[in-house]
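re: ur question from earlier - yeah i can do the single chain one, its not a big deal. heres the input i used so u can compare w yours
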Amino acid sequence: MQKRTLGTSGLEVSAIGLGCMGLSYGYGPATEKQQAITLIRTAFERGVTFFDSAEAYGPYKNEELLGEALAPFRDEVVIATKFGFEFNAEGGQSGMNSRPQHIHDVADAALKRLNTDVIDLFYQHRVDPDVPIEDVAGTVKDLIAEGKVKHFGLS
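and the output i got, formated as tokens:
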């Protein structure tokens, strides 16, 4: 599998990545859990090292699935996940939220769901017009300094 470098920070990923949204959200019913795990692990066996998720996919279920599926070879893959939405009690999106405290909370929760100690690529799902991008970037910079995140991006 060919590799690509994202940005200027040296983050190397497979040229083909696996966007995991459809396994638990968005394109019909969720894939059966064991079938989804098999698919993710087969992608890895075929050279895919870049796996994309988000708190919004499920919500939350996709990160849990990805964390379980990638656990046997966690150190050999790049996990990307996103932040930036607010959810209501029923799990529906109820608006955007990229306030600094919310970003911290999402990162901590995603680390648990992904069963990892670091998020390789953490990116804002949508620009939040109520929060200056400098505040968003500064918050992720703090998460990088804390060792919870390696790289920052924008979806």
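The domain at 3-154 is CATH 3.20.20.100 (TIM Barrel). not sure if urs matches, ping me
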